Amino acid sequence: MARMIRKSLDEPEETRPFEDGKGRLDLVHLEAGGVGRAVFEPGWQWSKHVKPIAQTDSCQASHAGYVLSGKIKIVMDDGEENEFGAGDYMSVPPGHDAWVVGDEQCVVLDWQGYVDYAKRQD
Q1: Annotated region Disordered: where (predicted)?
Q2: What is the pLDDT of residue 121?
Q3: Which pLDDT score, from 0 to 100, does residue 96 have?
Q4: Which of 122, 71, 120, 121 is nearest to 98 (CA)?
Q5: Is residue 47 within 8 Å of 98, Cβ to Cβ?
Q6: Which of 59, 64, 87, 94 has the fewest CB atoms in 10 Å of its CB?
Q7: Sequence-ordered list of residues with C-beta below 8 angstroms from that of 4, at least 6 positions apart, any chain
Q8: How far is CA 62 from CA 2, 49, 119, in A?
Q9: Residue 120 and residue 27: Cα distance in Å, rounded?
Q10: Which of 82, 86, 83, 92 is nearest to 108 (CA)?
Q11: Position 5 in a domain
């Protein structure tokens, strides 16, 4: 019989800080993968604050997420771009850069792409 699961992103099982204190990723682990809440501070950019951790030319995670607050701009390697804000669902394939738009934190819940996101490579 299936059982209910309760986990809280306010008490994450793992936290991964971004470079230069520009935010963090809080994760809870589930059998089907992880669910994460990323807090991107104003001035955060993937290519500056996660690329040194990921060691890839662009973000190679697929994202299925929901923006809780703030705004984020995403530019695909092929030049396609979009901006997502509070209340928006986003589906983003691998191969992109991203950055916070404006002076407000951008907070994103993601249930697809955060399992290996900002994970230090050994």
Answers
A1: 1-21
A2: 67
A3: 98
A4: 71
A5: no
A6: 87
A7: none
A8: 28, 18, 15
A9: 15
A10: 86
A11: no
pLDDT per residue of the chain (122 residues) written in tens, 0 to 9: 889 999 999 999 999 999 999 999 999 999 888 899 999 999 999 999 999 999 999 999 999 999 999 999 999 999 999 999 999 999 999 999 999 999 999 999 999 877 888 887 66
CA dihedral 53, 56, 58, 63 (to 10 degrees): -70
pLDDT tens digits along 21-41: 999 999 999 988 889 999 999
Residue 117 lies in a domain: no
Phi, psi (rounded to 5 degrees) for 68: -85, -40
Which domain CATH number covers 36? 2.60.120.10
Here the tokens at position 89 are 């669902």
Nearest to 84 by CA among 73, 68, 69, 95: 73
Q: Which domain holds residue 32?
A: 14-110
Is 27:36 a contact under the CB 8 Å cutoff?
Answer: yes
